[in-house]
Amino acid sequence: MRTSRDGSGRAGRGLLLTAVLLGSGLLGPGLPGPAVALDATARIPVPPAGAYRNAREAVRTGVRDYNAGDKEGAARALEYAAGQGHALALWKLGRMYAEGDGVPHDDLKAFEFFSKIADENADDGPDSTNATVVASAFTALGRYFLDGIKGSYVQPNVERAYDMFNYAATYFGDPNAQYNLARLYLDGTGVTQDPRQAARWFNLAAEKGHPAAQALLGQLLMNGQGVPVQRARGLAWLTLARDAAEGPKDQWIVGLQEQALAATSERDRADAQAQVDGFYRRSATARAR
């Protein structure tokens, strides 16, 4: 079991889908390569030749159709662009299949779309046009590797999950990846349990406005887990997380904030509110730049 990985290495082209197929014994002599697996045409009709002038036009059409509620039309247009390797189209289709949004839910198909993004854009820098999409694809792949995909060649592989999260968190600074990496350290999943490392990664994601990271960082600060006890700061992060909470899925954040509120003094609460106000001021200033 590892204690850490520095994450400074670059992920090479063709790393992801090829590696998992080889590891599963599904890619061998006479068998189709990864590109063949990327085939969403079975349930989405391929648009007729000449329907779009180029991939960019197809993406614009797909986004327009999606926003208008025509998700089947959106999928057709995005499929055309994805077939030409357009990263945003691949990402959007991956999300649609992962969520069953306008297309049949299909985690394996989503995995293959995200894999294609990672394979073809792994050398993109954090300032590149596709950086956000590429980072999101690596993070999505990490989540799939954590649990695997039932009935498919994608088996649970915590080490590969760590690699995906670590790459997106370290190289791209992606807050979702930073949060997922922190959870691995907090729970001791695939790495030596290390609350201090967890707090570090939660803090990076929290500063970028990630509500779940803010809540768990707040809890660590309240309990002194991996960090010194700092009740005011812990309550501040939990308050920010509660402000961003959305519906029943975030009820756990509300519960943690209420517990913290009851466990702090009046002075801590006033100090926490001042920190919350300061966070919002800094965020507003950053947006105005």
From TrEMBL:
Superkingdom of this protein's organism: Bacteria
Annotated signal peptide: none
Pfam families: Sel1 (PF08238)
GO BP term, pick one: ERAD pathway
Gene3D superfamilies reported in the protein's UniProt record: Tetratricopeptide repeat domain
InterPro entries: Sel1-like, Sel1_AlgK, TPR-like_helical_dom_sf
This protein's name: Sel1 repeat family protein
